[in-house]
Write a structure and sequence with these properties.
Layout (H helix, E strand, L loop, with lengths): L1 H4 L5 H20 L3 H5 L1 E3 L5 E3 H24 L7 H19 L3 E6 L4 E5 L4 E6 H8 L16
Parallel strand pairs: 3-5
Antiparallel strand pairs: 1-2, 3-4
Helix pairs in contact: 5-6
Length: 152
């Protein structure tokens, strides 16, 4: 729907709107007062999350995943930036590993990938880094430990 609402805009107009909105959004995110950041809200099935965690972590992941969804919806390749996207993926892997708490070896292919491991023996999985994030976000099916979700 958002794509259809903006279909009349050219790429330069869309980028100009993003450039105008981004500083305001970043100021808002940085200035959230600590009492507000500490408020916890339900987030089934993951329990309770603080507004600070939603603001600092979950919304960043959510925007990243929406970027992927938009690229798929318009039929364009999702270009991965090794510097930025690798940090997002590594953060997702860290939370995923903490949630299930079991030994594993995870080999994620692609520019945002890497090799992650905890413990000596455990499940071994190899897949594309972006696809891993799609699976743990609940947008695709996974098997074994990869079926364990994280908040997006």
């Amino acid at each position: 729907m958002q794509i259809a609402d903006r279909a009349h805009l050219g790429p330069d107009e869309i980028l100009a709107r993003l450039d105008a909105a981004a500083p305001k959004f970043l100021r808002f995110r940085r200035r959230l007062p600590w009492p507000f950041r500490a408020i916890r809200v339900p987030n089934p099935p993951f329990g309770w999350l603080s507004i600070g965690r939603l603001n600092d972590v979950v919304y960043t992941r959510d925007r990243w995943m929406h970027r992927l969804n938009i690229h798929r919806a318009i039929g364009r390749p999702f270009e991965v930036d090794a510097g930025h996207d690798r940090r997002v993926v590594a953060d997702v892997v860290a939370e995923w590993a903490e949630r299930h708490g079991r030994p594993y070896r995870l080999v994620l292919d692609g520019a945002a990938g890497g090799t992650f491991q905890r413990g000596g023996t455990g499940e071994v999985h190899q897949l594309d880094a972006v696809e891993f994030c799609r699976i743990v976000s609940g947008r695709a099916q996974g098997t074994g430990l990869v079926a364990s979700g994280v908040v997006f």
